[in-house]
């Protein structure tokens, strides 16, 4: 006999075979009871096993449903999922974004931003061609006016040059020449103003008219009278270097001193050498001989020591104790034997009057000496007298600046400066150079115009190639003729090409 077993869902689970003979024959209750217990145990095991399987499947289903709910919730919150009620924002193209940015910039409070936005608009870009045309026309107009002014100046320079060549140029003509070449000093400006007033009054011929304007160096009450500073520097010599070091480092004066000494070549004279602060910048390979001059014997001893330490084997050097105002007397053997002595590197004293009567130099340099000379104009004239043909006078000086507020400071501190350093730092160096008769080949000013870097020459010497500026060399019409008329023996065209 077979029994069919079903699970709780009605599905057939298993067939159970029962021996009929055993049921019929066996009467033993214990055997029957035992059989029933086995059947009961078998059924219980089957039910338990099936129930555990069902619970396991239910757990998996629950977890699946839970995870699906989470995913759906995340998807619902994602930007990729949009509800039917959500508003969809349209993605802007780069052109649209740029247009919005321009509109925003046009409303900016900054005028620079507004103008920048305006130049990016389509309307402006469409009109750019017209803007280019207008700018080009303006360039032509202003360029024509500028070049007309340049050619007009060139014509005036040529006319004045012809007058100079014929020796009929008036002071007014020379002042106009300075104005045209950008070399007008303050005193010259005042003179030119007076001449212009005379012309406005109807006086056309100014050849016989002479206008006198007092020099700034004599009319300015803040410029103290000159004096002999020899005794002052004798007392200052020992502490001079230590006291001046910080001031020169603060304004990078070492670079200017280096510029000064790089011009040294051939036979060199350094005037107002002081304690020899320029010795370390010397290039002795370019120097044939060198002479140092200073009125202070104490400072000269320090300069001599520095030179000996820097160039112990160099013999062709001399150290002269004397004033710049006495240079010509020194060279012509008219000086006092007891006042002017020369010391060579080995401290051998040489009587100046036994030297050659002709002493000339290729290069004469001076650093911050004009402000301390008793007669700076005479000193510069002596430099010119002792200069060889084609030689150069190179000056590094301090004086009046390019701005009035700077000059006011110099004037207000002039007396204190003279007491501290023995120099008149508010002198007009340009006027002193003009009064000396030297011609300036190169002029540069730094530190708001208070530091003067000058390369000067004799008027009858031609300019060197490196001293001719770009405009003067390539643009100025008839440059050779004007240079020749001004100097007397300017370079020819063939020489200039070389």
From TrEMBL:
It is a single-pass membrane protein. GO terms for biological process: methylation. It comes from the Eukaryota. The chain crosses the membrane at residues 129-147. It is an enzyme of class 2 (transferase). Signal peptide: none annotated. Its main location: mitochondrion. It is found in: Mitochondrion inner membrane. Belongs to the methyltransferase superfamily. METL family. This is Methyltransferase OMS1, mitochondrial.
